[in-house]
Design a protein that fits this description.
This protein has about 260 residues and is of the alpha/beta class. The chain has helices at about 15-30, 40-60, 60-75, 95-100, 115-120, 165-175, 190-195, 205-215, 225-235; strands spanning about 10, 15, 85, 105-110, 130-135, 145-150, 175-180, 220, 255-260. Helices cover about 40% and strands about 15% of the residues.
């Protein structure tokens, strides 16, 4: 039994999430109907988190996603930061890379999925990272606890009703810099906007506008126009087979936001 078989529910042998996907796609493309965004994904990650690490590591997905991880590492390398943390650190893929790249740095994280955090222990166990089971809207850290805070494809799972709370916490906890690599329809192609419009678990946020309400302006915004060619070259060099039913979306799946505080 593979990692995916351990947690995906099936209907007549077909994974339930695929049935739901096609139903939402049909409603959107046929009638223009979009269902409400999920208000909370805690229960989902409470059970999916058990198998997520093994599934994603075996799929070839991270061999492509590492391009965006590299962009975060470049931002961390611009200055000598003494500390950094990730909101939504999962099984530790990003924070343990940060510790490898910057061994002097105090690296931490938080995630509300306890199974994900448990799986972090066995992922590169030689790297000890302190991580808390916590909500990004109520971070268990003191003010200015870290020089830098970052996210990679995490805040796009937060409901519009709570995203500003999470961003306020990032501003409170981070002393020098915030880096978001997140989904923004504002900076994406129309094809990808249409493809993601009906997904209830993915939300587009305009981080430039949201941070403006907090009195913070972006120091840098990079889109697929800036790094699209580099991404395509990276993808061509990737030799592993991609074993994911939806494939891998293009360079416009993320926008890079950098805020200096």
């Amino acid at each position: 039994m593979g990692a995916q078989d351990k947690h995906w529910k099936t209907v007549c042998g077909i994974e339930l999430f695929k049935v739901e996907y096609r139903l939402k796609e049909f409603l959107y493309k046929t009638f223009g109907i979009t269902l409400p965004k999920l208000r909370d994904q805690r229960d989902y990650w409470a059970w999916r988190g058990n198998a997520y690490r093994d599934e994603i590591l075996a799929s070839g997905y991270l061999d492509r996603e590492v391009f965006f991880q590299d962009l975060i590492m470049r931002e961390l390398a611009e200055q000598r930061y003494e500390s950094a943390f990730e909101a939504g650190c999962g099984f530790g893929w990003n924070v343990k890379r940060a510790k490898e790249e910057f061994p002097w740095m105090r690296v931490g994280g938080l995630d509300f999925s306890l199974p994900q955090l448990r799986n972090m222990r066995d992922y590169k166990p030689q790297l000890d990272i302190g991580a808390a089971q916590a909500d990004a809207c109520a971070m268990p850290f003191k003010d200015d606890a870290f020089d830098v805070g970052f996210t990679l494809g995490v805040f796009m799972n937060l409901h519009p009703g709570i995203i500003l709370h999470a961003l306020s916490e990032m501003v409170r906890v981070c002393r020098r810099r915030i880096v978001h690599v997140e989904w923004s329809a504002r900076h994406a192609t129309k094809d990808l906007v249409d493809k993601r419009a009906f997904k209830t678990n993915i939300v587009s946020h305009d981080y430039d506008d949201l941070y403006a309400t907090l009195g913070v302006k972006p120091a840098k915004i990079l889109t697929y126009h800036d790094f699209g060619q580099a991404f395509r070259e990276h993808e061509r060099r990737t030799s592993t087979r991609l074993d994911r039913w939806e494939g891998f979306e293009g360079a416009d799946k993320y926008t890079i936001y950098v805020f200096d505080l």
